[in-house]
Each structure stands twice: as C-alpha cells, then as structure tokens.
Amino acid sequence: MRKIYLLLCSSLFFTACASSSENFDDMTAEDLYNVSWENLEKTKYEKAAAGFEKLETDHPYSKWAVKAKLMGAYAYYKNEKYDDAILALDRFIKYHPGNKDVAYAYYLKGMCYYDQITSAEKDQSDTAKAEETFLLLTELFPESKYAADARNKINLTEDYRAGQEMNVARYYLRDGNYLSALNRFNVVLENYQKTVQIEEALYREVEIYAIFGMDKYADGYYKILKNNYPDGKWTAKAKKIMEKLAKAETKKTPKENVSDIKPVEEKVTEKAEIKAAEAEEKAEEQEKGFWSKTADFLWPWGKDEATDEEEVEPVEEKVTEKAEIKTAEAEEKAEEQEKGFWSKTADFLWPWGKDETADEEAKSDK
Fold this sequence. Notes:
This protein has helices at residues 2-26, 29-41, 45-58, 63-78, 82-95, 102-114, 125-140, 147-174, 178-191, 198-212, 215-228, 233-252, 264-287, 290-298, 305-311, 315-338, 341-349, 356-365. By secondary structure, it is an all-alpha fold.
C-alpha cells in the first residue's frame, strides 16, 4: 500500500512539473515575472534566473523586461554564478544608465567580485575589481543608500590587498632579502594607510633599519609607531629593539677619564709652548748652510753630532783663519815670481824633486 502511495505522489509531482513547464511558455510577461519571483523566494535560484531570462528574451519591450534583467542578475548572484551575474549587470548598466536602480546594479556587481575574495594569500585580482567597482559607485552615486556600505567594502578590500603585500614582504624578510622586504613594507605605508596592516608595517621598518645599522631611521619609525599605537603589541616589540640598539651604542662609546680632562688654561699654555718650540726649530733650520742640510739628507744613518760640534766654530776664528790662508797664498805667489825660468823649468821637468845645487849655481851666475 505504501509503495502505491509513493508511486502516486511521484506521478503527481512529474505531472505538475510537466504542466508548469508547458504553462511556462504560455505565460504573460507579468505572470512569468511573478513565477520567477516566487522561485527566487523559495531559493530556487536556477529556475528563477531561467524565468527572468526568458521574460527578457520573449518580452523585451514590456515594462517587466527591465526589472527582469536586474532580478535575473540577482538570481545568478545568489546561485554563485558570478560571471553570468556580471554579464547581466553590465547589460543593464549599458542599456539603462538612467534607471533608478542603476546604483544597485553597480553595488551588486561589486559584491560579485567581493564575494570571490577568499584570503590575502591568493590572487587579488577580484579584490582590485571589487574596489574599482565600489569606488565608481561612490563617485557616481555618493548619496545613494548603497554608497556607505560600498565605502566600508573599499576599506576591507584595501585590507586584503595590504595583507597580500605584507605576506610577500614577510617572505622576503624570512629569506633574508631585506631590501625587497623594505620596499614592500613601504608600499603598504604609502598606499594603505587606513588599513590594520600599518602597525606591523611600521614595526618591520624599525626591524629592518636596525639590521642595516641605520639607527636614526629605526628611531624615526619607532617614534611614528609609538605616537599612533602607544599601547600596541608591535610598539612593545619595537621598544625592545630600540633598547638593544641603545645598549650596543653605549658599549661602542668609551667613557672619558676625568683625570685626562685638562683645564682650558692648561690646554692654551700647552699649545703656546708647542708653537714656540716649532718656531725655534724652524729658525735653527734656516741658520744651517747648504752643505749641512745636504749632509743630513744624504747620510741615512742619522746625523753625527760629534762632527757637528767639531765643525761649529766661532765667527771670529773663521775670519782669522781665512786671513792667514790669504797671506800664505800671497807669499807663495811672490816666491814663484822670484824664481827664474830655468828654476821653474827644472821644477817641472825633474820629477824627483828640486835640485838645490842648481839653484845656488843660478844665483852665483847672477
């Protein structure tokens, strides 16, 4: 009996479906819209989308056709047929730009992209398209009821995109490619300042500049982080880095010994004494003769102080010695003049010395 009951129910179900599909073709535009709407409310999204699309095709000039385009796109969206929904919405925006529901069309198109965003680790092309569509909505219809939610969605899409940049930057940081990581963190700081990623990005700047040994830059970003997020966890981590840098700087700078610090007066006196000694040394150098300087230069083993002492004589003794040398030379010249020709010739020709007997004979001849 139970089997017979089930067979009757199934036959009635298929009969109803067959009758509804047969009547589907014979419906007016208004009836077709109402049936499709009922299917949409019953979450029969595929049937609803098919009914709205048939209405748009069979009755393109009816007043229900324009609504059917938009509702068909919504049915595709609810059925997660995002590509079909976007195509339907683009047609609606293109052919009905002045329609009162065009702002909703932009919003729904943005949601088609937005709902496909999964995580920051994956491709963010849908994120960029969602942000672009929502931005266009806020620019064209800033006073519409969808604009406020669109702005919130823009902030969320920026969080996703900033998150992707942070993931790439962290990968470079783990790999030791600090410069590439720094560039990625800079992108976040420049382009996504309203996102939740800013706090960590500032901390990473402090961390990398500390690794580079650029303490001033690290301190600058630490101050920005501290001013904006005084109680944040990344600020606490950055503070530890700055404390380590301060300790390292203290070890590098040796403490001054108080005993080595001289008063200003003593320093001035010491400088004056050094200058006076240098002036005296320069004066002594100027008093030296040419050959004395040459000897100092050529003699590689240093100057013989004993020789210098022997060579240094008073000025008066030098003058007396020169006068005596000149007198001797004059006397010798006079003796030479007194000699006769043969005496000079004998001196020149006779290599073994002068013959004194010959000189005496010459004198007797005279």
